[in-house]
Amino acid sequence: MKKKIIIGLCLLLAVALAGTGMVGYLTFLRPAEQAPAEVCAHGHRPDARPRVVAAGASMTQGTLGTDWVGSLRAQPEHQEYAFINAGINGNTSADLRRRVEADIVACHPAAVAILIGTNDVRNGVPLDQYRDNLGAIIDHLKSRTTARIALMSLPPLGEDLDTAINRRLAGYNAAIKEIAHRAQVDYLPVHERLADRLRPQGGRQPYAFSFPLAFAVAAQHYLLRRSWDEIARAGGREFLIDHVHLSERGAAVITGLTSHWLSTAANTR
User: Fold this and answer.
1) Is 232 a domain residue?
2) What is the C-alpha separation between 72 and 79, in angstroms, rounded?
3) What is the rounded distance in angstroms from the CA atom of residue 102 to the CA atom of residue 261?
4) Which of 60, 87, 133, 232 has its CA 20 to 30 A from that of 27?
């Protein structure tokens, strides 16, 4: 009897470890779908579809939270484009600056949408350093490509807008808007759209991200097959599953803005 109990416990432990490993891989280690290393390594054929590169960090990679790049890829009205996901978990503006040539320019993009800076805010990267990195990224793209470029403002951190981290984030969003204006590239008001939906309803949860929370919501999605919207609602949130990453409703704001931007670009060609 004792031997059976030990065997049963060992089996349970093995299942738990396997589940933990699977969630860890799918969430944190798995590359984005249609990443630059997969798509752009062999150049660009003249007869290929125009490429749209989405560049950023985990919100763009879409393995923790909704994959808004994949949502765009699935839309019938944008089948003329090939979407490349140049999002990497944990990236800051400095990381994207280091890989702009390999992961964006090398793809020969027709359009580039950039959402970067959340980790700069979270990590306390000085605003001047962030501004310098973002400006260098745009200058590099303008000198090396003819792509149409859009900068996105950063979503709130936590759904309570009146917190210290969101007041700090406002300075980064001001820098994004300023750089877009200076460089004469497009600006997509992601933060503004989400903030407009959050303000009418008080009592929102303040920022409280942690890696255990991120792992827990990922386990609910990948093991229990719950949607990101269901997970967000269960945690008392609407647009953010873990105070940072996007539910389906949150990602729909980015998808809608980017879809409209691409449609406008198509109509002006």
Assistant:
1) no
2) 9
3) 25
4) 133
Structure tokens at 94: 């400095």
DSSP-assigned beta bridge partners for residue 149: 112
Strands 82-87, 111-115: pairing kind: unpaired
| Distance between start and end Cα atoms, the chain | 75
pLDDT digits (tens, 9 = 90+) for 95-137: 999 999 999 999 999 999 999 999 999 999 999 999 999 999 9
Q: In which region does residue 227 sit, left (phi positive, over 0), alpha (psi from -120 to 50) or beta (all else)?
A: beta
pTM, to two decimals: 0.92
- What range does the domain containing 37 cover? 30-199+250-267
CATH number at residue 69: 3.40.50.1110
pLDDT band at 180 (very low <50, low <70, confident <90, very high): very high
Residues 231, 217 contacting (CB under 8 angstroms): yes
Kind of pairing, strands 111-115 and 148-152? parallel
Does 150 fall in a domain?
yes
12-61 pLDDT tens trace: 444 444 568 888 888 988 999 999 999 998 777 766 899 999 999 999 99
